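[Automated response] Your request has been received and processed.

Submitted sequence:
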Amino acid sequence: MTSKAQGVNIWIPLVVMLSLIFIVSCGSGEDTDLTDGDQESVVDGDKESSMDGDVEDSEENTTTDGDDDSFEDEIEEEQEAIVSETIFSSYIDEEKTVAYVDLPRYLGKWYEIATYTIPFQDGCTGSTATYGVNEDNSISVTNECFLESLDGEYKIDTARAEIINSETNAELIVYFTEAFGADYWIIELDGSESEEPYEWAVVGSSLSIFLWVLSRNPQIEDTRLEMILDRLEERGYDIEKLDFTLQPEEDDNL
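Generated structure:
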């Protein structure tokens, strides 16, 4: 009896040990599964996060491209508006002048945009011409500029002009002295129908040796200026000879 009881007592610890080993093994398997699951979850999450980031980048790029396109569209619309507003007055080909000038709309201050430079204008910047009416109904002329720079020495010349073609008002002679006069022919002009002052003009002469591009503002839109120069070139004027006048960005008096 004693030997059998001892045999049973020996097997009991072995069974307990095997049970413990089995339980530990199962527990380790669960940890492994959890770890793998966590890894998959983290990896999948990173992938999804990365994909979300790519989507956001794509959306940002789309937004940026849209803004650029919108800005370009606005520029095109502004240029088209300028083109539509740039109407040329009809001109008389054989006389080289426009068909008609409404003098009240022409009077006032003009900024010189470009010119065939002549000796008495040499070194001038910020050049302007202002026209008014004298008591004898002749036109007063006041030419102003600054020598060498916009901060340079101020220069002013005055003259008077007489209309020699009252049908068109486009042909004048400007007298700087009683003995000396020069042609002043308005050869291109803003053709918009309005009671407001003309916005731009081009002045020449009978011999095409003088040329001035004038604007009511110190600066003129590139699109409009290009159209004016193309028109002059079509009419045979050498635009390569034009010198562009340095002007302030805006009128300080406004």
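Summary generated for your ticket: Confidence is low (pLDDT under 50) at residues 1-43, 47-51, 55-60. Residues 1-85 form one domain.
If you did not submit this request, please reply to this message.
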